[in-house]
Amino acid sequence: MRSLLSFLVPLLTLVSLSSARVHRAPAHHVRQLATTASAPSSVAATASTTVTVSGSVLPTNATSNSTILPTFAFTLQSTNPTAVPLSSIVAGATSAPTSPLSAIPAPGSVPTYLPGAPPLPDPNTLRPADYPPLDKVPPIDSPQVQQWIADVKNSGVAIPGFSPNVLGGCSANPQAASDPNRCWWYCGGCTRKTDITDCPTHMEWGLTYDDGPAYHTTQLLSYLDQVQLKSTFFVVGSRVISFPSILQAEYLDQHQIAVHTWSHSYLTTLTNEQIIAELGWSKKVIKDVLGVTPNIMRPPYGDIDDRVRAISIAMGLTPVIWTRISPTATFDTGDFNINGGLVSVSGVLYNWENIISNATARDRGFIVLEHDLFQQTVEIATGYILPDAIAHNFVIKPVVSCLGLTYQDAYIELNDNKTNPPLIEVSGAVSLTATPSGGLIQSTGTSGNSASKKSASNGLALAVATAFGGLVAGSMIIF
Ligand SMILES: [Zn+2]
User: Fold this and answer.
1) Is the N end or the C end of the chain the one with fewer CB atoms within 10 Å?
2) Is 28 assigned a catalytic role?
3) DSSP alpha helices (H): ranges in 162-269?
4) 466 C-alpha to center of ligand 1: Å?
5) Which residues have CB less than 5 Å away from ligand 1 (the ion)?
């Protein structure tokens, strides 16, 4: 077992880098430090044995980065022959041209794979003025939001009465972080039986991409089409306003569409009414563009507690997080942080290698956090992670499929409510009782994402969580 100190040293580097760069990030991309570290926790100076590609890659054109990031050893079984070089996947990378959609969806098209789906609306009729300002928590005084608030009140789902958290993460909210009755996933990984956090079948990967649609999503769609894979896209309502045709293309290509809020805010910091507005506007814009409404949601940053859960369930949305088997073994590639200059591409591939180990070792399948928001995240997905995953023989599916459900089960209007009854209608499901593995601090492993590191005591895990809090008290960092 690696020492606590060696675990924290790279973290300290991250924290110091982060504080220096907060001002550069748009509000949407400012992330608080979670106790679920996705940052690589060891530094290897040399390349390990390679099959196709392996190594520690230093950026050769670090551009805006004045600090060279730590590099990490990794091994990949396969890469995409047309992948951009790893040395080009850096913060401040030169913008690559975006590829056009292979086909612009025609209004009136019907997704033939989805029985009962209505014809596709015309995205040109979408009027941004009919929606809240982009990337801001929507106001709650509109008649539309007031109606959704009334609907939640009438749903019969009891919303816990605790007050919203303040921004600043676990250390800024110590009482909430230590309250098992809140079951705050972001601080400790607590889950409820209503949460979807993995796929039931060994070696099955419920593929997900968050934060789009965006400029480089088309490149991801093109690659997924090439290798005949389907994904789940957790889309941000504000991005749907900007890229409605890309959302339609995802949907027509048999990818699952899901809710990732309107403004990508920390949901536990919002009032009940604001959470309702975030989820309601996201549902509405997706319905306006596709004609159907998703029935799963992912809380940005994994920031969900029982209050957010209850509101989501009352609005017909089942929470989906990503797999987490210990405080330091979360299935988060960290890809988001390349763009912000907080992790090197080798760090992300090191995380990926550890995810593979953990995924292969566990009995059930898994869900990984990745993004289609940035050029770098799409380049690493299409060039490296997905080809490597295919070579490892993972069975890759959208979340709805890995759960053994049909595409109709993914949308409120098409779900027959029998094979996939909404949680709101399942007796007892909204009582939000803890899962056997749920708890304040789930366990084991303090020294990286490796499957072999499962021996640490809960006491040490708690100590690490405390150390995190001490390191970042009161500060916001990109993460
Ligand atoms: Zn997100």
Assistant:
1) N
2) no
3) 169-172, 174-177, 217-226, 237-242, 244-252
4) 25
5) 210-211, 300
Between CA 316 and CA 210 the distance in angstroms is 20
Write the CA distances from 126 to 96, 108, 284, 329, integer angstroms: 28, 15, 12, 42
Q: What's the 119 CA to ligand 1 centre distance in angstroms?
A: 29
CA pseudo-torsion sign 238, 92, 336, 341: negative
- Measured in Å, residue 49 CA sits from the centre of ligand 1 at 34
Taking the CA atoms of residue 106, residue 100, residue 249 and residue 340 in that order, the dihedral angle to the nearest 10 degrees is -150
Catalytic residue among 264, 371, 372, 409: 371
Q: Which domains does the chain have, with CATH numbers?
A: 141-410 (3.20.20.370)
- Given 195, 198, 210, 372, the catalytic residue: 210
Whether the Cβ atoms of residue 302 and residue 185 lie closer than 8 Å to each other? yes
SS (H, E, C) 382-393: HHHHHHHHHHCC
Q: What is the pLDDT of residues 143-173, one digit of tens each?
A: 999 999 999 999 999 999 999 999 999 999 9
pLDDT by residue (tens digit) across 39-87? 343 333 233 333 345 544 433 344 444 468 999 999 999 999 999 999 9
Phi then psi for residue 259, to 5 deg, are: -90, 135
Q: How far, in Å, is the centroid of ligand 1 from the Cα of 264?
A: 6
Respond yes or no: is residue 260 known to be catalytic.
no
Phi, psi of 179, deg, nearest 5: -100, 105
260 C-alpha vs ligand 1 centroid, how far in Å? 7
Q: How far is the CA of 116 from the centre of ligand 1 (A)?
A: 30
